[in-house]
Q: What sequence folds into this?
């Protein structure tokens, strides 16, 4: 593996600098997986990965889950450019029966929380026994809701970030590290 880190990236007109290293991300996921393993071992768990942003986090988290479980993927989005909008699209791709099951949502980031509160409501209507949420990142200063977040990897300031699954205009999801916008307004 190439080990030289990229310290700055440019996406369109914006410049980003490294903010969370891949090593820190991996340590964070180690801890979260340990906790989930001890909390849910022996239960009938369905991990529900929210695409696209959570694909990398989900891959790293689920490799560390050591009990029998199902993994499924849903898609939704509320982001256009770098600002949150209140338009939440539907959940696409959910074909599992949730009734009576433990669902653990795997999300990249909780920002305003609008997307997740909407998603959690939808899952409760499908009569899941319990709906838990595991997010790699959380922006407490942007959070407008009050639902519990069961597993938080890292709390971060209210700045726009990319990398490790997170995008700006569809770009930068591929980087192993997380970057933050330089020269915020
Ligand atoms: P929320 O509804 O405001 O909580 O935003 C949820 C979704 O917006 C997340 O699942 C991400 O896909 C996206 N998002 C939130 N903050 C950022 C960011 O800083 N960079 C890239 N995407 C973000
Ligand atoms: Mg997301």
A:
């Amino acid at each position: 593996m190439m080990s030289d880190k990229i310290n700055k990236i440019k996406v369109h007109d914006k410049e980003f600098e490294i903010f969370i290293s891949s090593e820190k991300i991996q340590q964070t996921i180690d801890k979260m997986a340990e906790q989930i393993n001890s909390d849910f071992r022996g239960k009938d768990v369905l991990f529900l990965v929210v695409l696209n942003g959570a694909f990398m986090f989900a891959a790293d988290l689920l490799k560390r889950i050591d009990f029998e479980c199902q993994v499924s993927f849903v898609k939704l989005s509320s982001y256009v450019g770098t600002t949150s909008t209140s338009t939440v699209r539907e959940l696409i791709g959910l074909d599992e029966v949730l009734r009576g099951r433990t669902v653990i949502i795997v999300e990249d980031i909780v920002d305003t929380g609008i997307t997740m509160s909407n998603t959690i409501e939808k899952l409760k209507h499908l009569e899941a026994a319990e709906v838990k949420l595991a997010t790699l990142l959380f922006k407490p200063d942007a959070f407008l809701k009050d639902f519990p977040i069961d597993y938080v990897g890292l709390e971060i300031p209210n700045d726009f970030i990319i990398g490790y699954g997170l995008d700006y205009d569809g770009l930068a999801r591929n980087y192993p590290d997380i970057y933050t916008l330089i020269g915020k307004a």
Observations:
- The radius of gyration is 16 Å.
- DSSP finds three helices and eleven strands in the chain.
